[in-house]
Specification:
Layout: H1 4-11, H2 15-25, E1 31-32, E2 38-39, H3 42-56, H4 61-70, H5 90-105
Antiparallel strand pairs: 1-2
Length: 111
């Protein structure tokens, strides 16, 4: 599980957008810890990354969100930008990026 700050770094989506996309479009429903902080799982990160890639490729935010929610989002070939997380070894970041990219390429019907 990832905090909102970690999810932002890993997905490439700004924190404010994560909150807005959750509230406005319902593409993720993060769990909450005892203190009420959002916690994101890997499938959440994959949905966020897919939505980001769609929006960056020219989709409207509403159309991208609908495609992500319905599991009809096309595979968008996007190479994740390097993520700088000081507490994680660089090799782990590379493996996480590859994992998230491959997860986004799976059958999105299960998302």
């Amino acid at each position: 599980m990832y905090t909102i700050k970690q999810a932002s770094r890993l997905s490439g989506v700004p924190v404010a957008s994560l909150r807005a996309w959750e509230r406005r479009y319902g593409i993720v429903t993060p769990q909450r810890n005892e203190a009420g902080y959002r916690l994101y799982c890997e499938p959440d990160l994959a949905r966020l990354s897919t939505m980001r890639a769609l929006v960056e490729s020219g989709w409207s935010t509403a159309d991208a969100a609908e495609a992500v929610r319905n599991g009809t989002a096309p595979t968008v070939a996007a190479t994740p930008e390097p993520v700088a997380i000081s507490t994680v070894q660089p090799e782990a970041v590379i493996h996480m990026q590859r994992f998230l990219t491959s997860g986004g390429q799976l059958d999105s019907a299960g998302m």
